[in-house]
Amino acid sequence: MSSNAPSSPRSQAMTVLLLALLLGLQPITTDLYLPALPALTQGFGASMVQAQLTLTALLLAFGTSQLVWGPLSDKWGRRPVLLGGIAVYAASAIACALAPGIETLIAARTLQGVAMGACVMAARAVVRDLYEPVQGAKVMSQALSGLGVIACTCVPVGGFLTDLLGWRWALSSLVLFALATGALIYFYFDESLQQRNPKALQAKSLWAAVKHIVRNPTFQAYSALSTASFAGLFTFLATSSFVFTQSMGLSKTVYGLLMFSMSLSYIIGTFICRWLLLRISVQTCVFWASLVSLFAGLLMMLVAYLGPGQSWFGAWAVMLPVNIFLLAHGVHQPCGQSGCIAPFPDMAGTASALNGFSMMLVAFGMGTWIGTHMANPLLAMAQGIMLAATSLALIGSLAVRKIPLPQAAHAAQTATAK
Fold first, then answer.
1. pLDDT digits (tens, 9 = 90+) for 303-329
2. Would you call 33 helix, strand, or coil by DSSP?
3. Residues 6 or more apart from 385 whose CB is under 8 A from it?
């Protein structure tokens, strides 16, 4: 742990809580409204492509905005970016809840993505500010466990509010989450960036930093890891409500329980990640997890092509490979998100932004493809997850496994093992 890391269990616990809430903005923004997606689509008389834009436009704005937020946080610090981001997020959440039409909702969700980019990017950078690489992966896994707990509640709460009060009330709940998170940032978060970079926004300096980061093999491998894993998760999120509530005719309550099981699998995966990192290297941990991802993708394809019409086919058959994929996702994300910024303690904001942009650019591409292949939602889900799983297997065996960690990471891992 670096010298500016939290010095007490209490301060580290608060750091993990804040990180969980900030990173949790992503699932609460994307997952909570999923049960409401068919209802708002029908309510606005919108097309399937327009409905998908409420998700894909948000994610594209989320990824693209980080390219600006990252250098800004390297120059001004993490605290002002976090406070500004959470304020804009709350305002955009109000606009979403009051949207008079699908076009306004898409615009408000886009602004919400911009604000979410500031918060999530800065949270990842804070981990690098405070911790050395392997310790950072462990802290990130703790925060992502908290994210998993948040994700567990999103779909059930969204479904309950949609059924009881309507989809606008489901979107309104995001305002309360943002205000509570903003209050904790204001009162409990001190600036984590010790050395600001006054040249971070200068075009020449910024371009040099970007080239340095994207050419780094460690960044390439670990950023690809987190991107591929998120692509699989995004595919499931974008298709799940249509598979379970429309195609299978399940209630929103049952759908919420299925999503709860998915989030629980992810939480278990983050605990497995921490357990493994005490015993094996990050590279070996990722390699074995990538094989689990590949198995999940193959199983998902079998279910999609052979299951419909069979007596054994049902929601459980779809969720089995999804839950296996989410177990591995709980390993890939802490290792990928912390590993890609590990070589850049002085440019953590910019590196975090580039990783976030990569993840959301691929998600936008997947969302665009999904929007034109929803004639068979289950098949679209299976094909997207299989593509992500194949990519993870290649990345885990051919890229991450062959790239040594920064020397500081080895020292931290040895100390932790003792």
1. 999 988 777 788 889 999 999 999 999
2. coil
3. 232, 235, 236, 296, 297, 300, 321, 322, 325
Q: Which residues of 401-413 are buried (b: 16+ CB within 10 A; e: fewer)?
A: bebebbebbeebb
Q: Which of 191, 185, 29 is nearest to 115 (CA)?
A: 29
Residues with Cβ < 8 Å from 372, sequence gap 6 or more? 49
| Crossing angle between the packed helical segments 377-398 and 217-241, to the nearest 10 degrees | 160
Helices (H), ranges, 278-402: 282-306, 315-339, 348-371, 377-398
Residue 257 and residue 152: Cα distance in Å, rounded? Answer: 9
**Dist. CA 249–CA 323, nearest whole Å:** 21
Question: Does the domain formed by 9-190+205-417 have CATH 1.20.1250.20?
Answer: yes
C-alpha distances in angstroms, 70 versus 221, 231, 240, 243, 364? 20, 22, 32, 37, 20
Enumerate long-range contacts of 195-203, CB under 8 Å, 24 or more apart. Answer: 195/346, 196/74, 196/75, 196/76, 196/77, 197/74, 197/75, 197/346, 197/347, 198/75, 199/75, 200/71, 200/72, 200/74, 200/75, 200/349, 200/350, 201/71, 201/72, 201/75
- Total number of residues shown for the chain: 418
Closest residue by Cα to residue 112 from 16, 38, 6, 29: 29
User: Which residue from 40, 53, 23 is spatially nearest to 364, judged by alpha carbons?
Assistant: 53
**Cα distance between residue 58 and residue 110, in whole Å:** 4
Question: In this structure, what token pair is assigned to residue 48?
Answer: 């399937």
Cα–Cα distance measured from residue 348 to residue 352, given in angstroms and rounded to the nearest whole number: 6
Residues 6 or more apart in contact with residue 103 via CB below 8 angstroms: none
- Quote the DSSP letter at residue 406: P
Q: What is the pLDDT of residues 87-126, one digit of tens each?
A: 999 999 999 888 888 888 899 999 999 999 999 989 888 8
Fill in the DSSP letter of residue 310: S
Per-residue confidence (pLDDT) for residue 404, from 0 to 100: 66
